[in-house]
Write a structure and sequence with these properties.
This is Cytokinetic ring protein SteA. Keywords: ATP-binding, Kinase, Membrane, Nucleotide-binding, Transferase, Transmembrane, Transmembrane helix. The chain is of the alpha/beta class and about 425 residues long. It has 4 domains: about 1-35, no CATH class; about 45-155, Phosphohistidine domain (Glucose Oxidase, domain 1); about 170-370, no CATH class; about 375-424. About 45% of the residues lie in helices and about 20% in strands. The protein has an 8-stranded mixed β-sheet with strand order 10-9-8-4-5-6-7-11. It is globular, with a radius of gyration of 32 Å. The termini are far apart.
Length: about 425
């Protein structure tokens, strides 16, 4: 077999045969350009660049639109799901069960509602089989690299997630029993902090007799924060960002006065915006992430406690005398409360809410009070009725003809002026 002849920019493939007499016979064949450009059939399924990390928080920071998130998170919570949706991932591959049945967590339901495919319970080996940055394909619950199968799991659907949530409600009894035990242990260790404010650090920002707005990265926190624009403008509350909540405040045009949380969850810009920074610490004083603040040249104080950062922010505001604490992104319902998947820190939330009592108000309630009661349609109808009344009054009065003549003349002059601008 050989190559011979070049015509019209294309190489022509010819097959050479040998006839009985020994002479070579050249038979025209197909063009080589057709072979070179012929693509193989497109493989079925959804494809994207894999981003792999066992640490969910670290993975969320690296995601880009169109990526396939490969993670290992049992009982995926709503906050993680919202972050995945916000990152515009093409699909999610979970090594662990997204709904284990312990309690009805909200994450998978959020992914289904947003139309994000979820391949569930693929096993821990998927984290090693899929290489970070590699191009992978998902089809019918199977993860491929090209045509090579890397792992398989359950392709969740809206119906399958709904059925799993119904079964998971049976696990609430065990979760509440564990919660009661954790609450007792937390109270034994942290009663001085919760009841008397022992260990609450001093901060430069004045909180006494002030309204305080605490923003955490929770369910729909950005949209809730935007609805509080009128409240913030009118009352000028102290703005407290918990972790990524500090960046949420900056994203809507506000500068936080106080930041509470692990600095690794906060951008450098927020940490250096002039806010007081409070870093949670262990009982021995070690505060993860404190070095980041110091490297940026900013100052920070530590808050030793086993409570979660959201509760530390509430206790800080309460024990410094805040008159009202408005929360955004913090757990409010039983489903949200259990959904966080941190049974150890949920005990601090329960006791903190009991301690701060009536000073805490959910931001959704404040937004509801500020919502306009007059619809746009009703307002337009009111304006139209007023214009009709004015025109009728002018027609009935002696000065009506003169006013209408003036309005007509002014309108014509304005129309001619505008037409002259565009007619040049």
């Amino acid at each position: 077999m050989g190559l011979a002849g070049v015509g019209d920019g294309a190489v022509t493939l010819r097959r050479a045969f040998t006839d009985p007499s020994g002479a070579g016979v050249i038979v025209p064949g197909m063009k080589l350009s057709g072979l070179l450009h012929r693509s193989r059939p497109e493989l079925p399924g959804l494809a994207g660049t894999a981003r792999v990390d066992k640490r969910t928080d670290a993975l969320l920071k690296r995601l880009k639109p169109g990526d396939v998130a490969v993670l290992d998170q049992i009982d995926m919570d709503r906050t993680t799901a919202d972050a995945l949706i916000g990152a515009e991932v093409a699909a999610v591959v979970n090594a662990a069960p997204s709904i284990s049945g312990r309690f009805p967590n909200l994450g998978p339901e959020a992914l289904m509602a947003a139309g994000v495919p979820l391949v569930d319970d693929c096993g821990p080996d998927i984290l090693h089989a899929v290489k970070d940055g590699a191009r992978i394909r998902i089809h019918d619950g199977v993860v491929y690299a090209g045509e090579l199968e890397l792992g398989r799991g359950t392709a969740q659907t809206t119906d399958s997630v709904a059925d799993a949530l119904v079964e998971a409600k049976a696990g609430l009894t065990h979760q509440l029993e564990a919660f009661a035990a954790n609450t007792t242990e937390f109270m034994r260790q942290e009663r001085a902090l919760v009841l008397d404010g022992y260990g609450v650090p001093d901060v430069d920002v004045v909180l006494e007799n002030r309204q305080v707005l605490v923003v955490a990265a929770g369910f729909d926190h950005v949209r809730e924060l935007k609805k509080l624009a009128h409240f913030i403008r009118e009352y000028q509350p102290v703005l407290v960002g918990v972790g990524a909540g500090a960046d949420a405040l900056r994203a809507v045009g506000h500068t936080p006065h106080l930041i509470v949380g692990d600095p690794s969850d906060v951008s450098d810009e927020a940490l250096t915006c002039g806010a007081d920074v409070v870093v949670p610490a262990f009982a021995d004083g070690h505060a993860p992430g404190l070095h980041k603040v110091q490297d940026l040249g900013a100052s920070a104080v530590t808050f030793p406690s086993s409570a979660n950062p959201e509760d530390l922010a509430l206790l800080l505001a309460h024990h410094h005398g805040a008159s009202m604490i408005v929360t955004v992104g913090l757990s409010a319902t039983m489903a949200e409360f259990l959904d966080r998947g941190r049974s150890g820190s949920n005990a601090s939330t329960f006791l903190t809410r009991l301690q701060v009592g009536g000073t805490v108000v959910d931001g959704r309630v404040i937004a509801q009070l500020y919502r306009s009661r007059i619809s746009t349609g009703a307002l337009l109808l009111l304006i139209g009725a007023a214009l009709v009344a004015v025109v009728a009054a002018l027609l009935m009065s002696q000065a009506g003809d003169a006013v209408l003549t003036w309005v007509t003349t002014t309108w014509n002059a304005l129309f001619e002026t505008v037409r002259g601008w565009f007619g040049r």
